[in-house]
Amino acid sequence: MGSRKERRQRQESQRRAVAVVEQAEAVSVAPSLDQMAADALDWENLRARLAVFASSALGRRAVLELAPRDDDDARAALARTKEALALGDDEAPTSDLSDPIGPLARARAGGQVLGPDELLGLLAFLKATTRLSAWLEAHTDRAPRLAELGRGLPRLNALEALLEAGLDRRGDVRDDASPKLARLRRAEFDLTQRIEKKVKAIANRPEVRGVLAPGMAGSVHMRDGRAVLAVKAKSLGQVPGMVHDYSGSGDTAFVEPRDVIELGNELSAVRADVQHEVQRLLVEWTRTALEHEERIARLAGRMAQVELALVGKRYAERFACHVPEVATVAEGLVLRGARHPLLAWQVEAGELDSVVPLDLRLGDPFRVLVITGPNTGGKTLSMKTAGLAALFVRLGLPFPCAAGSKVPLYTGVVADIGDEQGVEQSLSTFSASLVRIAEGLERAGPRTLFLLDELGGGTDPADGAALGSALLEWLLAKQAPTIASTHIGRLKEFAFAYAAAENASVEFDTATLRPTYHLIVGAPGESRGLAIARRLGLPKEVLDRAEALVERGSDEATKLLGDIQGARIEAERSRSAAADLDARAAERLAELETERADLAARQSLLEDEAQRELELRLGPVRDGIAELTKIAAQVSGAARATIEERLTELRGAVRAASVSERRRAFEEGLGKGDFVYLPRHRKRCQVLKVDHGRGMLRVRLGRMDLEVRIDEATGFEEL
Questions:
Q1: Number of Cβ atoms within 10 Å of the Cβ of 359
Q2: How far is CA 541 from CA 62, 546, 549, 555, 603, in A?
Q3: Which GO terms describe its molecular function (predicted)?
Q4: How many other β-carbons are positioned within 10 Å of the β-carbon of residue 129?
């Protein structure tokens, strides 16, 4: 009875656990960066590095303001990045996407007027979005999710035309931006010409030419917008007029001749009117732009998502990243060949020789992973890599990992990582750690990933072990996925006592007495403190005494632990090799499916081209058939019979040669159960129903039934 009761209790516990996980999966929220422990995971550093992959000002702002997405948005962003990667060198034109949001916000908040350069930037943005929208529409078949960003966008043709008519390519206001400005600019030009001509005439007078500064004869200079002559300072009286400036040496005075002062005053007044009219136009254009601010923001938001997909593509190509599959919480986290993004960057920059890839699992059948092993062996790095993978997927970004990696959409990450003492709060390392953990426990659940570095450390080992065990038990009860590292021996035993917990260790090379940085899931590790102390050169007498002080009973336990670890390492390597083969096979199958779809689409295009070519060649034949038909109508008897027999043969040959005739035969022969290929969806599917009257097919596409036009389908051949 007791055994049956225990089984029932276990079954009920499992049922409740599944119910909790399913309920958590149903929630779709967008967590904050704080909730994803972005600071503890060095996101600020990474964000600045990712921004270099943006090709436009709009893209750079999008990266720097990137925030975690809700579930649907994260999946969509990852899918768009995969599409961008599949397009290869065929990349969307985004480099001219200037960022209009900042200038518009400043104009709105401070009542400022947009300058010509800012308005020119807005014009460049509007033109770039038009080009980008056309590119997206042209790539609907190959990148449907990206193309969706270009649909239903607000049209701002009137604003674009207004700015196009008012600004030239340099950002100057055009002379013909308004009738008044055109008139003023003509007046300004005419006055400038008259003044220059008159000043040159004065300079050429014999009594003036001799008093001009050496090398300045006949030259007209400008000072404060006034036309002046460079006159020797000692001869100022020879050229009546107004002195506007002196040279640095004081030997030359710049004089506006008296005869042009009135014209100069006139020109200054006209220029003031020009500036007033330009300012009026800028105010008007700014007001018009602000009237469309909301639509411009919508447009910028869509275009920014295109840029983010391309940032992900360029980052993935540079660092051999993959877009992880989005897993359910029950499936858990699976990282294959993962590298910490900052270390991958250091390798790229030549600052590191290489990074040991990380293979890590957290989920079915265990939710708590306890990592043990020597210091500097990679425990903390493993946790940070896992946390960053969760953050990157939530942000919709690819990650430096291999194919076959799976990452759930966690709604939070609680990270107690590193020695971050709360100096302002006068907290010790231990106390600061407890404060961070306590704050995180309020969010504990199936979709919150816990990363606990040196669990139980910073206090008495017995207290630390008790507290650490109790905390892990509590997290297990809350279904919270957890990765914890520790040096405390008793915590290694935790995973042996709970089916939903597992040990892991960073591998240690006993020959070199150095960590290999490989994480072995399923085997507890040893701290190797004495071995490391020996490598670091501590005196032999100290080491001998330390070994003598180690409890004798630990020798047998250490040997047993070593045997267990060796067996688990071999098992893990075998599992990893098998998973590698599965991942490579899946990746190759996906590549072949893409190639097959491209071939089928290419076949359709070739059929269209062949039909056009054939129609050209059959034209004269049809003309001949028409001529023979007329002749046959004019004759009788044996001659007519011969002609009609020949006409029958010719018409049959034309039908047999025609691609369109084969197309007609294909459509008429379609029936329930046949397989067809849909180029628009790039999928092979089975026909459920044919409605020739309406020209429609009902097909099974994956798990969905949908209706398509018969002319959308082509014959499917096994490739």
A1: 24
A2: 61, 9, 12, 20, 80
A3: ATP binding; ATP hydrolysis activity; ATP-dependent DNA damage sensor activity; endonuclease activity; mismatched DNA binding
A4: 25
